[in-house]
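Progress note, sequence design subtask.
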């Protein structure tokens, strides 16, 4: 376990508008940024630190245990508990500073990573693949939502290990192998767990371990960033299982 430094403004601006970051930095009292997202005078600092942890995870092949999460944040606003899109900032860092040209992002959070999709929609150097409950918040990522490097896998409520692993093997894995990614980044949300209170999926601890193992097998390098997961009783064991899977 290591601590990381905050991401620099320059690195975050590879994914986010300067005006939006200025607005975050100027918050002095608790402020509702959208129906789900509150920020206070320390939130901007926390968001930069979370993004910095994601960068450190890429450098070390690690897992960034961070809050706030990031995958709902598009370039110009906060959304769904997310202020800065940590996984997107990490992908741009890998390309700009580590010399990795082709990056794949696998998002298994129960909610579609709409912000990540928005950031990379027109970028053929980043492949984004998301497995998520649908229809569900935020309403994106449906069966007709995709392009050459955007692979959305909407799954019905009640899907568990078998459905997730089948979809991964049939849709996600072939797309990433064909893309020939040099780095796989995982938006590791655990709110598809059977006991999570915010969704309706049935993935188990073994399912998350296997998703992590299969993700790590898709490129020479892998790193992960924590997204959702809202049952504090189960989240530690789910993270441990994913860590074990990444290391197998």
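Output:
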């Amino acid at each position: 376990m290591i601590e990381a430094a905050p991401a620099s403004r320059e690195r975050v601006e590879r994914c986010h508008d300067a005006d939006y970051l200025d607005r975050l930095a100027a918050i002095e009292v608790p402020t509702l940024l959208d129906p789900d997202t509150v920020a206070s005078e320390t939130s901007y600092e926390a968001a930069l630190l979370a993004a910095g942890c994601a960068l450190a995870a890429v450098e070390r092949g690690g897992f960034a245990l961070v809050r706030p999460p990031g995958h709902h944040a598009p370039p110009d606003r906060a959304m769904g508990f997310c202020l800065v899109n940590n996984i997107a900032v990490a992908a741009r860092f890998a390309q700009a500073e580590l010399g990795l040209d082709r990056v794949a992002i696998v998002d298994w959070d129960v909610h579609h990573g709409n912000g990540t999709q928005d950031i990379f929609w027109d970028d053929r150097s980043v492949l984004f693949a998301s497995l998520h409950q649908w229809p569900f918040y935020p309403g994106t990522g449906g069966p007709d939502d995709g392009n050459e490097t955007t692979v959305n896998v909407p799954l019905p409520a009640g899907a568990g290990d078998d459905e997730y692993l089948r979809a991964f093997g049939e849709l996600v894995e072939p797309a990433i192998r064909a893309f020939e990614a040099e780095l796989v980044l995982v938006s590791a949300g655990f709110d598809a767990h059977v006991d999570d209170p915010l969704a309706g999926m049935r993935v188990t601890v073994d399912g998350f371990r296997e998703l992590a193992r299969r993700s790590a097998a898709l490129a020479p390098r892998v790193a992960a960033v924590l997204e959702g997961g809202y049952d504090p009783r189960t989240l530690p064991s789910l993270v441990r299982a994913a860590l074990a899977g990444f290391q197998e």
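The two ends are 19 Å apart (CA to CA). Work on this subtask will continue into the next period as scheduled.
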